[in-house]
Every structure is written in C-alpha cells, then in structure tokens.
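Q: What would this chain look like folded?
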Amino acid sequence: MSTGTRLTNGDHTATVSRLSNHEGDSGEAVPSGGNVDKQNIDSWVVLFTRTGSEHLLTNILSAKLDTDKYKPFVPRREISFRRKGITTTEHKILFPGYVFLQTYIEKDTIAEGLRPELYKITGLQIPCSLLYYGDNKRDVAIRQEERSEWERLFSPGFCVETSVGYMVGDEITVTAGALCGFEGRIRKINRHKREASVEMNMLGAKREVWLPLEIVERR
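A: My prediction, written as structure tokens:
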C-alpha cells in the first residue's frame, strides 16, 4: 500500500492514501465466490492484482487455497441503463484490480500463512499482493467497523444493488435499498447514470465510491 495512490470505483477515481490500483473498469461480470457468512466469518483481506484479472485470480484462489480457510470474492455493483426504451441491469466490478478474501484463521497469522501461497500464484504470471495498514505488513485484516459498513450494503453475492429515493431541494431521502440510512454519506448524485457518490471507510481512509441510486422524483 503506497501513499498517495488511487483506488478506482467503476469509471470514477478517488484519491486515497496507502492503497495502490490501476485506473479502469473491465466491465466483466465476476462470480461472487460465495455469500457473506456473518456468523462464522473471522476477517476480510484485500489482494491487489492486474485490472481485468479479477475473475481469473478468483478462480485460481478457489482452486489452490484451502477453502476451509479462505473464500475469495469480488464486490460488484448494479448498473442500470435504458436503450431503445428497454431498461437493462448489469453487474460491474466495484473495485477493479482488487480481490477480497474471507479468512477463517487468527488475524495475527493471516499474513504469514497467506503470503507463501500467493507467491505460488504469482508464478502463474498473475500479479498478486496482499495489502496492509501503514508500515506493518502483518496488519492485513480489514477493520471490523469498516467491514460492518460494507456488509450492510452487500446483498448475498457481495453485490450493491440499486436503491431508490427522491429529492426535496438538495435533500435526498432513500426509500428502498441498501443505501437506506446512508443519506448523510451521499456527496453527489448523477441522475442520468442512476448513481451516487457515497463516502465510505476502507483500509483506514475515507473515500467516495459510486453506488447505484435511482432518484425517481424531485419535488
């Protein structure tokens, strides 16, 4: 995680600290790798890879890692658009260039147990590195408060589905969907693209990510 680099979210980019990424969005629908297990999950960690390799890396991790300890997934978001009068909904990668892992082992042993496995995967010509907080390479588990926020947003399958709301002046009220209760985090909206820029916490920094929100009425 290098200082002053960038984390991309769809076609939008937010400057953050201590997290590397290439810009862009493959637009490829990526299998989730499983559902959120809120009862048994211990930690989440984040892997950096080449944009466009998320699907391939997820499949390799699923095949090579111990599935009793690690479950890879790629967060996604819904996008909706109209073409010739027909509304189409697709899923796009929420953070291009990143793959997440659920881990079921002790936090203090994640880094030393996972990194040797990743070195083997790197030998398959897929760049892959384990991100960490600050200068401590063992501090890799996403903070509980950060993970809890994203769990509120994800549907089964780690996808942020479209929320619906309306506006009175500049005030936004979300009436249905994952963004209910997150109105205070919304920084701007794009009604044409049916999305909102929402301030979220991830890897020790506040950043704006574009999430699906349809404003059906402006009063």
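The radius of gyration is 18 Å.
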